[in-house]
Amino acid sequence: MPLTSDASGVFPIAPTPFNPDGSIDWASADRLFQFYHDIGSDGVTVLGIMGEAPKLEPEESVELVKRCVARMGAKPIIVGVSAPGFAAMRSLARQVMDLGAGGVMIAPPPSLRTDDQITGYYAQAVEAIGSDIPFVIQDYPLTLSVVMTPAVIRKIVMDNPSCVMLKHEDWPGLEKISTLRKFQKEGSLRPISIVTGNGGLFLDFEMERGADGANTGYAFPELLIDVVRLQKAGQRDAAHDIFDLHLPLMRYEQQQGVGLAVRKYVMAKRGILAHDAQRKPGSALSAAAKAEVDYLLARIAKHDPRAKI
Amino acid sequence: MPLTSDASGVFPIAPTPFNPDGSIDWASADRLFQFYHDIGSDGVTVLGIMGEAPKLEPEESVELVKRCVARMGAKPIIVGVSAPGFAAMRSLARQVMDLGAGGVMIAPPPSLRTDDQITGYYAQAVEAIGSDIPFVIQDYPLTLSVVMTPAVIRKIVMDNPSCVMLKHEDWPGLEKISTLRKFQKEGSLRPISIVTGNGGLFLDFEMERGADGANTGYAFPELLIDVVRLQKAGQRDAAHDIFDLHLPLMRYEQQQGVGLAVRKYVMAKRGILAHDAQRKPGSALSAAAKAEVDYLLARIAKHDPRAKI
Amino acid sequence: MPLTSDASGVFPIAPTPFNPDGSIDWASADRLFQFYHDIGSDGVTVLGIMGEAPKLEPEESVELVKRCVARMGAKPIIVGVSAPGFAAMRSLARQVMDLGAGGVMIAPPPSLRTDDQITGYYAQAVEAIGSDIPFVIQDYPLTLSVVMTPAVIRKIVMDNPSCVMLKHEDWPGLEKISTLRKFQKEGSLRPISIVTGNGGLFLDFEMERGADGANTGYAFPELLIDVVRLQKAGQRDAAHDIFDLHLPLMRYEQQQGVGLAVRKYVMAKRGILAHDAQRKPGSALSAAAKAEVDYLLARIAKHDPRAKI
Amino acid sequence: MPLTSDASGVFPIAPTPFNPDGSIDWASADRLFQFYHDIGSDGVTVLGIMGEAPKLEPEESVELVKRCVARMGAKPIIVGVSAPGFAAMRSLARQVMDLGAGGVMIAPPPSLRTDDQITGYYAQAVEAIGSDIPFVIQDYPLTLSVVMTPAVIRKIVMDNPSCVMLKHEDWPGLEKISTLRKFQKEGSLRPISIVTGNGGLFLDFEMERGADGANTGYAFPELLIDVVRLQKAGQRDAAHDIFDLHLPLMRYEQQQGVGLAVRKYVMAKRGILAHDAQRKPGSALSAAAKAEVDYLLARIAKHDPRAKI
């Protein structure tokens, strides 16, 4: 299903499951996508940063998308296609769209600094992949070290009709959502889907500022779905209640560098992944860290039975 | 009172109070230090990054320390003396020690990269200020972009007997505390006080990993004191309970760039500061952000009357 | 003499002379400014990055400007006033203008990323120092990590009538000069003085692209004056001949980090400075490096007697 | 031919030739490698940063190595295998060694900061590719932002017997060569080949400090060969004479970002490449820049007929 600017809800960032020997664990991949489907995700993103995309071979990337489409094809699937060269970006983008992906996500290379460099890069990227492929801007300064103002995002959106979504992952980023929605109200920005990242750490307020949902990972994507649903239903206090319950673990999982190890550890504990392995170079959890995660899970489980694992 | 390697407990990072015209609000400064004293702080840190130290004139810095000593002199006062040149560092360090400060805090300049550059810098700094002044290592990679391994910290500590404390502000940083404490057990590191930063966002577990306390800011330093006290008393669950209650606001206050505006806004609301002004260049809160903070305060106040403001 | 947008020629960046004990060597300072005057400099810049400005105390900075004015007051003197806070920037700027400086130079703080952040910073800086003080934009991405497009520079110039000069130190930077001069021709940019940096390493072509002169350091500022004079006189080949003769040493002196040590070593050898000392933290030359510089000097001296030292 | 720690001389960094449509220009590739062979290169490096390696598809990389081996197989061929994941690194390394490459070059990923992170990374990389493949450390802080001390390089060399060469590209870097050679004399470092980069900008003195040759690009690799040969023959002045003649162009070509465009422009002018095209995203030369390069060529040609093109 193609991704459109009406997209809304939760698009989990899928980790890539590996076997302890570093090969892809395809059975877990199938189970993972089925899981995302069954809990009611509105789509999914594969081959993102937390999907260890740069460590995959081109044919592995393509196969992963195939598996994803087989399980979730009725929902829009977003595929990260960021690459050092436009040739590789085009090649992957066209392949995955042919396979049934809904759109692609493009992160700016870390060397970009000025507004013109950023908007120029997206213009070139669209020229490369073709203007018929819906794409998502990834705005993630903490990791990418590229800072986009609301005006820069607006220019990318207005210059490129195939831009349908912003993966908002600035930090702090609440004012950015408000500004972009103000642009829309004023008429200087066309409607665009805004879904947020950062492991959901500010999802409670991001929804109140006008986000359409989340495009991020957390070992309990159901929690992201709860918060988005409750906020859309106007149940502010209930949204914050469930959010606050999970916040201690979300915070723990949002640690740069070890966050993915935490996420995979919990997802393995939940039985979704067979292993918590990362392809090298990767990070691992100490025994102390695992005990801390277990403690946090036990605390959440007192009020949320899903954490009883 | 001199700072020693036995130091333990909570050393709030003091913001510098300003009037709306940018001048220092001395009355608020006096009230702030009195407040830190009355709630049972074990010391205080002035002229840190969140104290807007680089924006102060030398004579203002000295006056602020004088005010602090007058209110809190019975407790060790830590003074940030980081400076581009060692001449200025020495000058400020010696002045504030004469005024009754307990020690100084030194951050590495952002240009340092290699282990040798870092240990070499601290050796030169100690040579500059004199080996009779107790000093604190500030380990804050997110803002300073200098990464210190546990082995580098150990070398600084072992090479410089006047090093008495580590302000631990790495992120993620839990394993670093464990490693340093392991060094001590093995006998390769002498005892040193480890107090943690990052707005307290991991204080719950940092205490369990072996931290001696906190050296950071939060609009409710009483909460930091609670967590440290409960963890020291072995009341793990109670420590996490009160910590988790405040975590939504702590997270909000820990946003890079706008965090200080949140902290000053709440401290002004509490009546501790007369204004939430920053000296230019600074940041300010939008009406939406203020309403969000108010909402978080109201939620905390249901269980912690101190947040009823 | 006030600095204007007509400024042209060579404004050497003055190193700050120190005694081996780290105190300022005032006698050498006097001699240095007299030297700049006598060789026909069109002005001078003090308290720049290569002047070790951040290591000076406020009163030392003021005294240095006084000494400079006494020797070179008939020429426009540019004073670096970059500071972490606008209060200190204003204080120094107003003091030095009262003492007879011609204008001030402002570098953007390294944290700035977006176009708006940069133009906003200069607007605030001008508000702080007052719109009556002529100022110079320092555009030096290699060291400051702030990248300004020609359009950003244009906006700063057009928004702030007190902006009279660009210290152009981008690398590569030739196209930037051409673009700015094209803006002027098109009428979108008012006239502004463009003087170049980077140790003169591209001065030969910068003049041909439309630069007005140089605002940089080199142990033989006479060479910069020669190149600027010859290029203005249309003697292209002669300009390149003398430039190429010095290029091996200019390249050697333009090494990041040790460049200042090379410059001071040669200027001490020339008898302009009494010592080649830097205030700590600083760098020093090895015996091998000194021998290499001596060798380069001997090679230049075969064709330029000024290098016979 | 396998690369050994006795390697010496000039190993040009080969650009990858492209057609204007972005496909690889294989005829030019063949001609380029034949050219390197005919001028007496001691080997060659393909798939380096200046070879636009990250923009190539895996099969293109392999084909390029095949072409190179066919023309230069009697000399050691170094292949850049840097990759975000060790799986891809291993895959490419083993393939190219099977095809007849002499060794591989590994650059540290830009995220590495501490000494331990750097040495740990190389240990993992060797584990990944196998300890039977000779490898080259690429030490290039300006572009990679990873700073390696001499002691870190020594540790990598001593821990990994398959490390045979350092591509030295620190800036400034002369003291680093001296220190490493001192380590060898003292017996703490085993013999290793040191070849230098930075476009040859310091090759004159690098040879005098103990470098074995150059592993870098310049549109006239013959010049690098001349300098290395003359310095090895003890003809210091002659080496500097020919070096200084080319320095104005070397400096022009060593501009970050546009340097590759200059190199390809001149090599196309020389008839070695059919086009000066880069695969997107790339940079191009303005008419003014081309005229400047032509002027520099004409000046060199007065004394070096090879520049008459």
TrEMBL record, chains A, B, C, D:
InterPro entries: Aldolase_TIM (IPR013785), DapA-like (IPR002220). The keyword Lyase applies. It comes from the Bacteria. SUPFAM superfamilies: Aldolase (SSF51569). GO terms for cellular component: cytosol. CDD domains: DHDPS-like. Pfam families: DHDPS (PF00701). The keyword Magnesium does not apply. Keywords: Lyase. One of its GO terms (molecular function) is 4-hydroxy-tetrahydrodipicolinate synthase activity. Belongs to the DapA family. PANTHER family: 4-HYDROXY-2-OXOGLUTARATE ALDOLASE, MITOCHONDRIAL, DIHYDRODIPICOLINATE SYNTHASE. This is Dihydrodipicolinate synthase family protein. It comes from Bosea spartocytisi.
